[in-house]
Amino acid sequence: MKNKFNIRNRYVLTGDAILVIVSVLSAYILRLELIEIFSNYYLSRLWMLGLSLLIKLAVYFLFGLYRRMWIYASMKELRLVLVAVTVASALVSILMLVLFKNKYFISFPRSVLIIDWIQSIIFVGGLRYGLRMFAEGRNRISGNGKVTSQKTVLIIGAGDAGELVAKELLKNPQLNLKPIGFLDDNPDKFKQQIHGVPVIGKLRDLSKIIESMMVNEVIIAIPSAPGSVIRIVSDACHRSHISFRTMPGLYELLGGKVSVSRLREVDIADLLQREPTFIDNKAIGKILKGKTVLVTGAGGSSGMELCRQITRK
Prior knowledge:
Elements: H1 7-31, H2 34-37, H3 42-62, H4 75-101, H5 111-139, E1 151-156, H6 160-171, E2 177-183, E3 193-194, E4 197-201, H7 206-212, E5 217-220, H8 227-240, E6 243-246, H9 250-253, E7 264-265, H10 268-272, H11 281-288, H12 301-311
Parallel strand pairs: 1-2, 1-5, 2-4, 5-6
Antiparallel strand pairs: 3-4, 6-7
Helix pairs in contact: 1-3, 1-5, 3-4, 4-5, 7-8
């Protein structure tokens, strides 16, 4: 029979149990003086400790808090923690109020229920996101304890796709790619940050930023980027002799998750923004064989690609 949760989540369960005790005791301490806690409110404190341990841990388990890899926690997991803690605290509060009404104990400060609820959200959420921060910190350091050398990457587009690319690069330092900034033509995004990576300019600043910040690679994170944008990036990168890649088009992303592994080299179809026309290479080769060909505009991306194909004929 398989275990309900792996060993790492058992440690999380143990941490939750400790934090439940800390939350209840600190709620009483914040609300009352120490002398009162050990005298008048002794019995209610024991009841609340017992109920909290039983109910909260059971609710957390039912909500799946011990079946998740918290190193990948997101806003979805944060909402789950909030709901689970609120449901558990509500059940504990109802039972404590019922017991108090039936005089199982005489003294009970009801405000500790609210204090305990707030602290539980902080403790339970903090434990899990602390694990994520710890894991990400360890991933940034190589096995010998030194930070690995990384190529600097400039991301074109500070939208959803750009956010995904930056997040992926930051989470996977073994890729040796470090995002140093975004370029985006939306003025409202200028000097804003995404995962700590700033928006440092517009597309027209590309050549200047490549030189001033010693950029090693450019990633076009605009799945629907027009050919004009790709040509600007291509020309700037070729002049600076650095590599550049692009996100797959929207039709390529359907049914698949965006990741760095799906980045690809820019091809002629990206520059044209249409399906390439297939020609008879043998027939063209016969026409061009032994002839001198002049290509106008050969310094640009389209002209360079045309020269490359002519030399193969």
